[in-house]
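Sequence only, no structure available. Ideas?
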Amino acid sequence: MAVRLIYQLLIQVISWLALLAQSSASKDAEILVLRHEVAMLRRGNPKPRLDWTDRAVLAARADPAEGTASSPDRRACDAPALAPSPAHREMAPAQTTGPPTDQR
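Reply:
I predicted one. C-alpha cells follow.
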C-alpha cells in the first residue's frame, strides 16, 4: 500500500516537472488537441433532446421539499418559523380575547 502511494506521488511530481519544462506553444497545441477530441466525442454522443412527456415525468418525480439550488436562503427564512425566539412569550389561554389563532 505504501509502495503504491509513493509510486503515485512520484509519477505526479514527474508529470508536474515535465509540464513546467514544456514551452507555451506545446501547451497551446495540447489544449487545441484536447478541445478537438472533446468536440469529436460530443458529435458522436449528442445531448438528448427532451420531449414534453419527458419533462412532465421529470417534473412529477421532482421532490418539492428539496427546494431549488437558486434559493439557498429559503431555508434560512423558514428557520424562525420552526423555532420561536427565546424572547417570544405565549399568552396564557385565560388572557386570550377574540377568536383562537393558529400559533406555530
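The two ends are 57 Å apart (CA to CA).
Hope that gets you unstuck.
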